[in-house]
């Protein structure tokens, strides 16, 4: 099984080198999609790719780090769509989505992969027994909890953590989803991917994770993205049968 971890980045200079190190130690291929981060994350990535591709490191997986540089901040949703298409043009069997800021523990990846033998989508979930959130401000805890209850109630589907960004897909799911039909961003995008997977009849498993707030850099999620998600839930309910 060949597995790819897609990591979108915007201003992650304090995290990027470490996260790539941890994920590649676990033997996964990595695709980073950087939106011309003003803090120079893209330059760090180019350097890492050069050292990764050096003859010395070839036994430990040369070419396992790939980078897409985009011109400007185009959003999390379009970054993932581009990453999914990139993966489908190649021979990856399992495709993971993960943040760069260590809120998602890379050590969960092998567990997700194991579960993908029985399920089609694994969701790293804060809201199932064993899961949780660490060091998040109370405001974010409330928004996340209420947002998830809202989405779950309106969409009437069983995923408890619809806004989770840590996911693992079997290739066939991404092949079946109409990726060009997805226009949502941020949390809306994360809800839409899970809802479409569910509507196509695929098996979803929520794997408990402890989501730890970032210690380096700032969150990029804006108020607009929250509003967008609120409207999107209704659009999804009406449009996707
Ligand atoms: N390429 C790209 N990455 C983004 C963008 N917005 C956020 N990210 C990345 O997406 C991941 C999640 O973003 P983050 O700000 O941590 O969201 P939060 O955890 O909900 O506060 C991080 O790895 C970010 O660097 C974007 O517009 N483009
Ligand atoms: Mg984060």
Radius of gyration: 17 Å
Question: Treating each run of at least 4 consecutive H or I residues as one helix, how many helices?
Answer: 8
CA(first)-CA(last) distance: 32 Å
The strand line-up of the biggest sheet is: 3-2-1-4-7-5-8
Mean model confidence by pLDDT: 93
Bound ions, cofactors and other small molecules, one mention each: guanosine-5'-diphosphate, magnesium ion
Which CATH class applies here? Alpha Beta
Characterization of this structure:
The protein has one domain: Alpha-Beta Complex (Spore Coat Polysaccharide Biosynthesis Protein SpsA, Chain A), CATH 3.90.550.10. The longest helix has 18 residues. It has 241 residues and is α/β, with parallel strands linked by helices. The chain is built from eight helices and nine strands. Helix 5 packs parallel to helix 8 and helix 7 packs parallel to helix 8. The structure holds guanosine-5'-diphosphate and magnesium ion (MG). The site of guanosine-5'-diphosphate has 19 residues, from strand 1, strand 2 and helix 3.
